[in-house]
UniProtKB/TrEMBL annotation:
The lineage of its organism: Bacteria, Pseudomonadati, Pseudomonadota, Alphaproteobacteria, Sphingomonadales. InterPro entries: ClpP/crotonase-like_dom_sf (IPR029045), Enoyl-CoA_hydra/iso (IPR001753), Enoyl-CoA_Hydratase/Isomerase (IPR051683). One of its GO terms (biological process) is isoprenoid catabolic process. It comes from Sphingobium limneticum. It is an enzyme of class 4 (lyase). Pfam families: ECH_1. The keyword Lipid biosynthesis does not apply. This is p-hydroxycinnamoyl CoA hydratase/lyase. GO terms for molecular function: lyase activity. Gene3D superfamilies: 2-enoyl-CoA Hydratase, Chain A, domain 1, 6.10.250.2850. Belongs to the enoyl-CoA hydratase/isomerase family. Keywords: Lyase. Its EC number is 4.1.2.41, 4.2.1.101.
Length: 286
């Protein structure tokens, strides 16, 4: 059963732009404007931030999956409501709309729980922001990815150019941005936009399986790890080495027992092998 997050004083049409359900430790969050191919309007951007707020620290949420209702993941920014209507309000309107969209993408990049993009269909332009914000990404083989900005006369802004160069190589990024040609899920996996592409009817099962593996890991270590992978990409080797020492020491102060239990179950109890899976967290005393 999907939920709509109710917020006092906010119109129903805004609340309904995002749907979610929590099941077995996984929060399934959907762009919920299927009739508009889930393009991102200011209303959707505001509601998505509220839903992320609602779910981030809930004890029953260990992994968040972001997907789309209907045939699209997200057809990018809403050309009418995000561009035309906010531009008509002047610079303050434009900047306000940017703050709202960039705000939830940033929030998602540094989310407390691991995140997975489940790209079920169209993914365009501004959609690359949340795509990159998710830690892992799985796509339907037939999903279509496009930097269509060039097709309607702008550059791939809102981080999209940055995302393309972060995820794929220079030639791919340049061709993709200049030509305005789409790539399907298979090519997106080859290019590094997503981890894997699967037939649409297998997508949900694969994402569920991945999420369940993540749920079996130490949550403090997951957060430290996902942040480390994002941070070290921009550091020199020495800076990264230092950052990782500090990050681990900081993680230890939140969860000093977890890693000790992990060592104990391997070295003393001989009940598992870290090279082959995670330790049993249910045996951890604190
Ligand atoms: N902005 C505003 N409205 C949109 C958007 C969008 N990005 N995408 C789809 N819609 C609307 C359509 O206008 C249409 O509205 P209507 O029913 O009121 O006429 C409705 O969603 C359905 O769209 P169709 O085009 O009829 O759907 P179809 O399945 O045939 O095509 C496709 C899907 C290819 C995604 C097409 O809608 C499309 O090209 N959308 C724009 C994609 C795009 O370039 N996005 C912007 C990227 S750049 C950026 O994000 C900064």
């Amino acid at each position: 059963m999907t939920n709509i997050l109710h917020v006092e004083g906010v119109e129903q049409t805004e609340l309904e732009t995002v749907a979610y359900t929590v099941e077995g430790g996984i929060a399934w969050v959907s762009f919920n404007r299927p009739d508009k191919r889930n393009c991102m309007s200011p209303r959707l951007n505001r509601q998505m931030m509220r839903v992320l707020d609602e779910l981030e620290y809930r004890a029953d949420v260990g992994v968040l999956v972001l997907t789309g209702e209907g045939t699209a993941w997200s057809a990018g920014m809403d050309l009418k409501e995000y561009f035309r209507e906010t531009e008509s309000q002047g610079l303050a309107g434009t900047r306000g709309a940017q703050r709202e969209s960039y705000g939830w993408w940033r929030r998602l990049r540094w989310y407390q729980k691991p995140t997975i993009a489940m790209v079920n269909g169209w993914c365009f332009g501004g959609g690359y922001g949340p795509l990159f914000a998710c830690d892992l990404a799985f796509a339907a083989e037939d999903a279509q990815f496009g930097l269509s900005e060039i097709n309607w006369g702008i550059l791939p802004g809102g981080g999209a150019a940055k995302v393309a160069t972060e995820l794929t190589n220079f030639r791919n990024a340049m061709y993709h941005s200049l030509m305005g040609e789409n790539v399907d899920g298979k090519k997106a996996a080859e290019w590094g936009f997503v981890n894997e592409a699967l037939p649409l009817d297998q997508l949900n099962a694969r994402v569920t399986a991945v999420a369940n593996v993540l749920l079996s890991k130490n949550p403090i270590a997951l957060k430290a790890t996902k942040d480390a992978i994002r941070r070290v990409r921009e550091m020199t080797y020495d800076n990264a080495e230092d950052y990782l020492i500090r990050a681990q020491e900081s993680a230890n102060s939140f969860d000093n027992e977890g890693r000790k239990e992990g060592i104990k179950q391997f070295i003393d109890d001989k009940t598992y092998k870290p090279g082959l899976g995670a330790y049993d967290r249910s045996k951890q005393s604190v």
